[in-house]
Amino acid sequence: MFRKIADKALETFYLTPLIHMDGNKELMIENCKRIEECTEVFMRIISGNLAISIWGSSLRAYDFRKNSLLVSGRISQIEFSERTDKRNEKSDKGLCQD
Fold it and tell me: Which of 4, 30, 58, 97 is geometrically suited to a Cys-Cys bond with 18, CB 3.0 to 4.6 A?
């Protein structure tokens, strides 16, 4: 029961990722916590209890402010995985720097 209440609270306060896509060229992810890995062909983004993996070509991360991120390039695949280990939550290791 507590889990159900906690999940509802996350949805209510918009702490879960909200994703908008423009074809396979642009992806806006709201409620991002951090960028874990960033290359031209792969990005891994942490949002709530999810890790979002993005594969493609010419990938670039823009506009990381107010907990949202704009990813552009040719997106070929997006994968979501639940995170269970949050011990390194405050680590900035692996942040993408442009």
Answer: 30
Distance CA 1, CA 16 (A): 19
Quick one: pLDDT at residue 12? 52
Q: Where are the domains of the chain?
A: 2-82
Tokens linked to 90: 């405050």
**Which pLDDT score, from 0 to 100, does residue 49 have?**
84
CA distance 2 to 69: 31
Domain at 2-82, CATH class = mainly beta
Asked if 58 contacts 71 with a C-beta cutoff of 8 angstroms, the reply is: no
Q: How many CB atoms lie within 10 A of CB 28?
A: 17
Per DSSP (E only), the strands in 23-49 are 26-30, 34-38, 42-47
**How do residues 44-72 score in pLDDT, each as one tens digit?**
999 888 899 999 999 999 877 777 899 99
